[in-house]
Write a structure and sequence with these properties.
Layout lengths: L1 H19 L4 H21 L4 H16 L6 H18 L8
């Protein structure tokens, strides 16, 4: 039940944020799951604070590399794939005692 509330609040937030950012629900629907998955993997496999910062970097990188709004989805997905490779290859440092 709590997860349903959290997801409903996320959707409500996004419904307000998308038009303010000049983005469409269609674009988000194509990249939402890959972004959420990579953020989860970073938070659990690398560092929790690195997750939102990496999500920002994915968006910034994709935005800078996409020649048009139409190619933005492809740019985001390609950037997420590169980050997924980084996460898969990540070797955490041994914790110091």
């Amino acid at each position: 039940m709590a997860d349903e509330h959290v997801m409903a609040e996320m959707e409500r937030w996004l419904d307000g944020a998308l038009p303010e950012l000049g983005l469409s629900r269609e674009v988000l629907s194509q990249v939402k799951d890959p972004i959420l998955d990579v953020v989860r993997d970073i938070a659990h496999g690398v560092s929790r604070p690195a997750a939102p910062l990496t999500a920002f970097l994915v968006g910034l990188s994709a935005g800078l590399s996409a020649p048009s709004k139409e190619s933005a989805v492809e740019a985001v997905l390609a950037t997420v794939e590169r980050v997924n490779d980084l996460v898969a290859d990540w070797v955490p440092r041994a914790e110091e005692s």
